[in-house]
Specification:
By secondary structure, the chain is of the alpha/beta class. 40% of the residues lie in helices and 21% in strands.
């Protein structure tokens, strides 16, 4: 599974402005709506589903990475948005580190297991120190997307 195929420059946020986990989720979902990845009527339900998921168990997987994800009945295909927080956000991650990289996925409700391979690829990719280092350096959506693509090619 190619993570970059779920993204575009329009769906990369190099400087998340939010300071809390819930604000990050809201900011990223608002961005998905603004870029046509998600319908506005489903926005509140998706944010609520993401927050409920985080309250059950954090998607902060360690290494400064979180992969929030949920289902939506308003989608036919998965959508994603990537965001970076230079200051870091508390996601109650398993290693207690603040999160700097957030890859948010919303998947169709009628394809409940379609995202599992994607989650595994993201976790494997971001477990590499060199990947996180490279993504710290980029300053534009295009630079971050290119870095993600290069890193995934190197791992494949």
């Amino acid at each position: 599974m190619n993570i970059v195929s779920l993204l575009s420059e329009r769906r990369v946020l190099p400087d998340l402005g939010a300071g809390t986990r819930d604000e990050v989720l809201e900011e990223m979902i608002e961005h998905l709506v603004a870029t046509g990845g998600l319908s506005e009527p489903s926005q509140d339900a998706v944010v609520e589903a993401l927050i409920a998921r985080e309250e059950r168990i954090s998607t902060g997987i360690g290494y400064g990475v979180a992969i929030p994800h949920c289902y939506s009945d308003s989608l036919n295909d998965p959508v994603a948005v990537f965001g970076r927080s230079r200051s870091g956000v508390d996601f109650n991650a398993c290693d207690s580190a603040v999160v700097h990289f957030v890859i948010l996925l919303v998947v169709p409700e009628n394809k409940p297991n379609s995202h599992l391979q994607t989650l595994a690829v993201i976790a494997r990719l971001f477990s590499q120190h060199a990947v996180r280092e490279k993504l710290t350096e980029g300053s534009t959506p295009g630079a971050l997307l290119t870095a993600l693509e290069q890193c995934q090619l190197e791992l494949d």
